[in-house]
Amino acid sequence: MPYLLAILLSVSLLSGCQSAYYSAMEQVGVHKRDIMVDRVEDANAAQQNAQKQFTSALEGLKALNNFHGGELEAAYNDVNDQYKDSEAAVNKVKDRIAAIEDVADALFEEWNDELALYKSATLKRDSANKLRATKAQYQKMLAAMKRAEQKMEPVLDTLRDNTLYLKHNLNAAAIGSLQGEFNSLQREIQQAIRDMNSAIAESNRFIGHLKK
């Protein structure tokens, strides 16, 4: 029970910190809509970085498959570094998506609450319609981002498996046995990149919608 209370308190404090942050930013003229745009752009940059890192990891594994002699320890270290960098890139994408969800919740809640303040039925109806349209566009973008995020996990799994296998079987025969993994990883990376490109395209459309 104390552990559960600690978790609930931490969540409450984090939520409070975010609310205080949004309030402070509004005091200097930066509104939730502006923060949303910035965070979507950050997520796009994180996905582009993940694409580059996955491509680099694929090249590293390709070089390992073509290994014909040399320092095996150096070859393993390169694969291990690529895995760690890929894991960091994926975690950054996840963090960026979570940040978008946080500000979206705050933005839409505020927007919905403020509908009750309108005296003009026409303006209220127009604002409500725009809220629904923005929510729909947001959900479409978020779904694309989540699909891309899910496609990253198989890539990490394959890279992790290769790294662990080489760690305990560092010899030429082990490298040869990983050649079959290369084609699988290549397909997974290509699919992940396609989904990330789709998510980035949806993000750009959403940003355009917000800036109208």
TrEMBL record:
Q: Which residues form the signal peptide?
A: 1-20
Give the superkingdom in one word.
Bacteria
Q: Which UniProt keywords are listed?
A: Coiled coil, Signal
Q: Which residues form a coiled coil?
A: 76-151, 175-202
Name of the protein described by the UniProt record:
DUF2959 domain-containing protein
Q: Which organism is it from?
A: Photobacterium leiognathi
